[in-house]
Automatic annotation (TrEMBL):
Residues in RNA-binding S4 domain copies: 24-83
The EC number(s) this enzyme carries: 5.4.99.-
Catalytic residues of the enzyme: D147
Catalytic EC class: isomerase
Record's protein name: Pseudouridine synthase
Catalytic activity annotation: a uridine in RNA = a pseudouridine in RNA; uridine(955/2504/2580) in 23S rRNA = pseudouridine(955/2504/2580) in 23S rRNA
Domain of life of the native organism: Bacteria
Organism listed in the record: Proteobacteria bacterium 228
UniProt keyword terms in alphabetical order: Isomerase, RNA-binding, rRNA processing
Role, per record: Responsible for synthesis of pseudouridine from uracil at positions 955, 2504 and 2580 in 23S ribosomal RNA.
Family classification: Belongs to the pseudouridine synthase RluA family.
UniProt-listed GO biological process terms: enzyme-directed rRNA pseudouridine synthesis
A Pfam family this chain is assigned to: PseudoU_synth_2
PROSITE patterns reported in the protein's UniProt record: PSI_RLU, S4
Length: 324
């Protein structure tokens, strides 16, 4: 679909898929285009043959080629409220957090507390803010995600071709992610990886949690001790697979939950950490390394801790010095 074409709910439409979307799965393409339409409705339309490519039935995993004719049946699109305008303060904060930028992509040191996108009661996230700050750009899309409370490096694509290439690199292990986390207790130096399958679960309250489960997806995280404190350990974590909450759950499974984690941590430990001024999850995407999708050069970007994390480390370090 070209940038000018928008689906209409009134009648059957035939749209031409832009070459920019070449290689994208049809279900992912439709979910992005028909935002707000339930997944079950979209998959039902594909299953019944109401959605067609070049007048032929297609499966959800079909990869679009570009230049193809897409048939869309009448579908009711929900009314979507425009996100609120980005405040001057948030705008400056995001602009100051840009670590790397060129014509194809940018890397941002996402602040903790800022969701990567709107939804679930959040009307304005990082990507919506960026689109307001850069209205001249035809496309801005998240390459991957970070939890709302996690800070650090996040990739944003400015071209569809860059997005496709970076997604392929993510699938093939071509994007190296390094996180720093402050965990409870003394992480043993010999414990260099956690290999435990993870499965998403939904509680009665509707909250989603991830657990180690034999029926889950294979998940591997490499760990390394960076620094020890009296009651905590600063560790480096490298997720080899990319599961939801992977580092948080693997740290908990290893017996050393991340400090400030209100979902997988220990309440008493988190409460005690507040004396150091820590009121957030101590998980930070410290470094991203990847091959540039256009130039082919290796790009390595580091993100510094915010003031709160720096202050926590300084206080913990001062305790060690005073104890000596």
């Amino acid at each position: 679909m070209s940038d000018q074409q928008k689906p209409s709910s009134a009648q059957v439409q035939w749209l031409t898929i832009s070459i920019d979307y070449q290689g994208q799965r049809l279900d992912n393409f439709l979910l992005a285009m028909l935002k707000g339409v339930p997944k079950t409705r979209i998959y039902s339309m594909m299953r019944k043959g109401e959605i067609r490519i070049n007048r032929k039935r297609v499966k959800p995993d079909y990869r679009v080629v570009g230049g193809e004719e897409l048939r869309l049946p009448p579908v009711r699109l929900p009314e979507r409220d425009a996100p609120p305008p980005v405040s001057a303060g948030l705008g400056r904060k995001i602009e100051d957090a840009i670590l790397y930028e060129d014509d194809a992509l940018m890397v941002i040191n996402k602040p903790s507390g800022l969701a990567v996108h709107g939804g679930s009661g959040i009307s304005l996230g990082l990507i919506e803010s960026l689109r307001q700050l850069r209205p001249q750009l035809k496309m801005l899309e998240l390459v991957h995600r970070l939890d709302r409370d996690t800070s650090g490096c996040i990739l944003v694509a400015k071209k569809r071709s860059a997005l496709r290439a970076l997604h392929e690199a993510l699938r093939d292990g071509g994007v190296d992610k390094v996180y720093h986390a402050l965990v409870q207790g003394r992480w043993p130096s010999r414990h260099q990886h956690v290999n435990a399958p993870l499965k998403k679960n939904e509680l009665r309250s509707g909250e989603r949690v991830v657990r180690v489960d034999a029926d889950g997806k294979p998940s591997l995280t490499e760990f390394k001790v960076l620094r020890r404190f009296a009651s905590y350990t600063l560790i480096e974590a490298k997720p080899i697979t990319g599961r939801t909450h992977q580092i948080r759950v693997h740290s908990q499974f290893a017996g050393h939950p991340i400090i400030g984690d209100d979902k997988y941590g220990v309440d008493e430990v988190n409460k005690a950490a507040k004396q150091y001024g820590l009121n957030r999850l101590f998980l930070h995407a410290a470094k991203l390394t990847f091959r540039h999708p256009v130039s082919g050069e290796v790009v390595s970007v580091k993100a510094e801790y915010d003031a709160e994390l720096h202050a926590v480390i300084d206080m913990l370090s001062a305790e060690i010095i005073s104890a000596e």
